[in-house]
Write a structure and sequence with these properties.
By secondary structure, this protein is an all-beta fold. Helices cover 0% and strands 55% of the residues. The protein is globular and about 45 Å long.
Amino acid sequence: MKQGDIFVSCWGATMAMVSFFRVLKTSASGNTATLAEIPAVETNTGFLHGTCVADVAAKDGKQITRRVLGNGTMKLEPSYGYIEPWDGRPMHYDHCD
């Protein structure tokens, strides 16, 4: 994990919400990372659902700091989701509950 890497979280019980994050910095030990939320570019394929990708050119949003787990993911609190490396492929979202 290094500065500039993009991470993603897909979460929700009945909806598929997608959040993207950019790594701003990691601690010297690598145990924590400071991330900034970045917006998604959505492509609607139906009523309130479709695919999205990270808007990597966007300005950094709200910053959060998370503990890095042994497998390189981070917990997205207070939800039950995880933040993991994004492979660049479009993510499915569904905003309809």
